[in-house]
Amino acid sequence: MNQLTDISTIKEILQRHGFRFSKALGQNFLVNPTVCPRMAQACGAGKGVGVLEIGPGIGVLTRELAAAAEKVTSIELDARLLPVLKETLAEFPNVSIIHGDVMKLDLGELIRQEFPGMKIVVCANLPYYITSPVIMRLLEEDLPIDALTVMVQKEAAVRICAQPGTRECGAVSVAVQYYSEPEILFSVSRGSFLPSPNVDSAVIRLRLRPDREKDPQKRENFFRVVRACFGQRRKTVLNSFSAGLSISKSETALLLQSAGIPENARAEQLTMEQFSNLARLVAARRENDIL
């Protein structure tokens, strides 16, 4: 099964299993033979490493991961692909396929069962329609994961990895920065897939911060502030924050001044330190029943 990136081979396998691509599931399978080895290397697959893969498709990336990692567990939603994967991954005893929805499975329990005593990373070619929800679930749940290396739509990659204080930054960018250190690794052209999507992709890596906040109350307070700041993105922080938290502009102005934020600043211009300062001030005022 060495020609799994050969289009005629893929079509023959899929036809034999009666498989048809589902637009609803965002199915675009990698056929570029250079991409998966690069992803497997970038994600850190190796001895003693367990890899959690989401959406293996026909197993092109899975094979590269299995050749390097101690174990690979792949979550596949589409039951029609299970017999295909059984065939394409037959030579890899260290691969386990879980039929299920990554947004509904108990990932903590799955990881405990599948990867005892291993370092754990995530590597996946994510369907575009579910990119942000999957990434945020993996970041927010305090799973014992070292890093996420995923392929996403190129525009999404820029947005996810945008640094606070830059024009491209949004609420998702701040959330990703809160939990991890993101970077764009390389671009992948639309012609690398079957069928070809209408946009290019990029592989990004999110290394989880070992010192990320564990207190759920502090997290909730931080993101309450972030949501308020980005709630009316075209407006200044003074206006959007005031409306988002239902407090007067005079009180908001005092909070911004104390946090070192100009009243005419916009949310995308704020640094992580400024968001953190503002969150601490809001928490302190709430404790004093001011907010």
Main features:
291 residues, alpha/beta, Rossmann fold, Helicase, Ruva Protein, domain 3, 2 domains, two-stranded antiparallel sheet, 41% helix, elongated
Summarize the structure.
The protein has 12 helices and 9 strands. The chain is of the alpha/beta class.
Describe this structure as you would to a colleague.
This protein is of the alpha/beta class and 291 residues long. The protein folds into two domains: 202 residues, Vaccinia Virus protein VP39 (Rossmann fold, 3-Layer(aba) Sandwich), CATH 3.40.50.150; 72 residues, Helicase, Ruva Protein, domain 3 (Orthogonal Bundle). Helices cover 41% and strands 18% of the residues. The protein contains twelve helices and nine strands. Strand 3, helix 4 and strand 4 form a beta-alpha-beta unit. Helix 2 crosses helix 3 and helix 6 runs parallel beside helix 8.
Write the layout of secondary structure elements.
Elements: H1 7-16, E1 29-30, H2 35-43, E2 49-54, H3 60-68, E3 71-76, H4 82-88, E4 95-99, H5 107-114, E5 119-125, H6 131-140, E6 147-153, H7 154-160, H8 171-179, E7 180-188, E8 193-194, E9 201-208, H9 216-230, H10 237-245, H11 249-259, H12 272-287
Parallel strand pairs: 2-3, 2-5, 3-4, 5-6
Antiparallel strand pairs: 1-8, 6-9, 7-9
